[in-house]
Amino acid sequence: MQQLSLLDAIKKEYQEKRAAFIPGDTMKDILLALGALPEDFAKLAQVSNHLADDPTLPFRKSRNGRFCFNFDDGRIERLEFQPFVLSVEEDFIRHDSGKIRHFRGINDDLQLNTVFQAIMRFKAYIIDGVSVAPRARLNQDINKFVCTVFNLRTLTTPRVLGEPALEGVHSDGVDHTMTTFLGSENMTADSAKTFIHDMQETSGIKYHQANKALILGEIQHKTFLDTLLVVDHERKHSLSPVVAQDKAKDSTRDMLIFFTRKPVEDGHVSFKYDSFNPHAEIPLAIDMLAKAG
């Protein structure tokens, strides 16, 4: 299968460079091979129209959901709702660092979309067996990962500037971060650039303050399904703001973000919020692609 060899090439690049960017057209071919139905692509592009107000950021709409990547039984399963928290200790410095945030949950319009399910299969395949620098208080002995998925819309209005990474240079407190572009409206061509930084860079500074010698890569999500993978505990990242082309109108940028990490141990800020119980109200369980051989 041609797509499997392509997946293995992406995985090899990710292992060697600790980051990989996959153009949207390439992602589409891969996702079709991983079970995506052609009619679901257009639906996924519109799913961000149904987001809720973000709990802490006025320029953002959001929903999230937790999934278990169980590599022992080759399954991906929706987990019950839990609050979300990121701390300064995890290289996340913002006004809401350490705050317990309650996001509205993603619904069946996203989790039953076969393109979305294929994206999760894609990520599971790429990260399976990839060793990363271990984060403190993550249980390395369990062959399961928690994948917290965020569906986000960053909004710039005539009064408010939308910043996809208000926190500046940061890490996401996980093992693997993946970002997939769903679309934008009224956004300038140079908006929302992603910069990948060496771990020596100072967390919390703005993207334009970063030491250019410590910038390891610069990419931009422009095309539907453009996807970036980063080994989160070995690379920091930052983003430039969403700037409106027509200043009198709103500008939007829609993304899927996949934060994937090993389960936490006692003493971790998320320990009380790391349940592996399945979601009772809107369950989901799908087969993972067979492990790389």
Automatic annotation (TrEMBL):
Pfam families: 2OG-Fe_Oxy_2 (PF10014). GO terms for molecular function: dioxygenase activity. InterPro entries: 2OG-Fe_dioxygenase. This is Uncharacterized protein conserved in bacteria. It comes from Serratia ficaria. The lineage of its organism: Bacteria, Pseudomonadati, Pseudomonadota, Gammaproteobacteria, Enterobacterales.
